[in-house]
Design goal:
This protein has helices spanning 37-44, 48-52, 60-70, 83-94, 110-117, 160-170, 192-195, 225-235, 242-253, 258-279, 301-310, 335-356; strands spanning 24-25, 77-80, 100-105, 121-126, 144-148, 176-180, 201-206, 219-222, 291-295, 313-314, 316-321, 325-331. The protein has 358 residues and is an alpha/beta fold. It folds into two domains: 21-32 and 258-352, Aspartate Aminotransferase, domain 1; 37-253, Aspartate Aminotransferase, domain 2, CATH 3.40.640.10. The strands form three sheets. Strands 2-8-7-6-5-3-4 form a seven-stranded mixed beta sheet, sandwiched between helices. Strands 9-12-11 form a three-stranded antiparallel beta sheet, with helices on one face. Helix 1 (37-44) packs antiparallel against helix 9, helix 4 (83-94) crosses helix 5 (110-117) and helix 4 (83-94) packs across helix 8 (225-235). The chain starts with 23 loop residues before the first strand and ends with a helix. The mean pLDDT is 94.
Length: 358
């Protein structure tokens, strides 16, 4: 008999980003302009049957919307309660005891958590622009290689040639390559069309970022039908709530082009914020996403995040980022929110200067 809980669960804690209610929360990379208006209209038009009856087994309306958007077949699409759920299903379908999940680090924190949840071994490989793909494949062939593109928390995008080499090395190995495109709407570069052709490539996306639907938890993945079948077996039925599926379908179809305007404003504000952080000497990293990671002013991301939070602005702290040290990640949103952040940041910088003055 195996005792409850599993012995390897001692390595896990409940997820806790340390978030508290504040006036301006810039910590989650959500759409701070709000939800897609067509998605909101779908929620408001809900009927009693939408709540009292089970949803579609595999969210076929949503699968069809994704297929139409990218010009692919619906059987190349899986769905889930957020892209985390799609990732979890893919990890579970790939997991053998102590199999390896390799990924460039730092990256999305759930990569290691999902590996441990599914009895796998996370194997981070220090990320740099010089990272060669074989480094992800040493010390035993991994079951999964996970790549976040654009990457969270750095905002960088793995070059297409780098990804092509990785796919080539893993094509005949049985390794599943997962490319997480949670932020791809902000860069325009996508591997979705490749995913329906290349063996063992799964591309995942979410409605929580650009579409403004984080509260509904709805995501999807694209791959060849044989990969999708295995993920769906792991996923199980009824995972996407009816209203979430309706709303995400409307947002993905984007009938009036609302998304383009929001993304354009986000990119303009990202450039403006990057310049403001550069002028303050905080070494902001170039970003292809809707956030920017910059150097923690005091050298301690935890201390700086606490100080800003005490002034009503919440960022996400990160420690020991290669080439940067401790850093703070700020979500790009409407400029008035970013102005508030910069005022609070300037107050923090002034306080540090006073403390460091002879």
């Amino acid at each position: 008999m195996t005792p409850f809980p599993r012995s390897d669960y001692t390595e896990l804690d409940r997820y806790d980003p340390g978030r508290i209610p504040v006036d301006v929360d810039l910590s989650d990379n959500t759409n701070l302009w709000g939800p897609h208006p067509h998605a909101l209209a779908q929620i408001r038009a809900a009927s009693s049957e939408d709540l009292s009856q089970y949803p579609e087994l595999y969210a076929d309306k949503l699968r069809n919307a994704v297929a139409d958007r990218f010009g692919i077949e619906p059987d190349c699409v899986t769905t889930g309660a957020g892209s985390d759920d799609v990732l979890d299903s893919a990890f579970r379908a790939s997991s053998e005891p102590k199999s390896i999940v390799a990924y460039p680090a730092p990256t999305f924190s759930m990569a290691s958590e999902l590996a441990l949840m599914n009895g796998m071994q996370p194997r981070p490989v220090l990320w740099s622009h010089a990272l060669s793909t074989p480094e992800l494949l040493v010390e035993g062939q991994p079951s999964i290689v996970y790549v976040c593109r654009p990457n969270n928390p750095t905002g960088s995008t793995a070059p297409a040639k780098w990804v092509d080499k990785l796919l080539g090395l893993c094509e005949s190995s049985g390794t599943l390559i997962i490319v997480d495109e949670a932020y791809a709407d902000f860069t325009g570069a996508s591997l979705i069309r490749r995913a329906v052709e290349v063996p063992n490539l799964l591309v995942t996306r979410t409605s929580s970022k650009a579409h403004g639907l984080a509260g509904l938890r709805c995501g999807y993945g694209v791959a060849r039908p044989d990969v999708i079948l295995e993920v769906d077996k792991s996923r199980g039925p009824y995972k996407v709530a009816t209203l979430a599926a309706y709303a995400a379908t409307a947002a993905i179809r984007d009938a009036d082009g609302w998304m383009a305007g929001i993304i354009d404003e986000c990119l303009k504000n990202r450039q403006r914020l990057h310049q403001a952080l550069h002028e303050r000497g905080l070494n902001p990293l170039d970003s292809q996403a809707n956030f920017i990671l910059f150097r923690a002013p005091s050298g301690s991301a935890t201390d700086d995040a606490r100080a800003l939070r005490n002034e009503g602005v919440q960022l996400r702290p990160f420690t020991k980022i290669p080439g940067l040290g401790d850093g703070l990640r700020v979500t790009v949103g409407p400029w008035p929110l970013l102005e508030r952040f910069l005022r609070v940041l300037d107050s923090r910088l002034s306080a540090l200067n006073r403390t460091n003055s002879p």
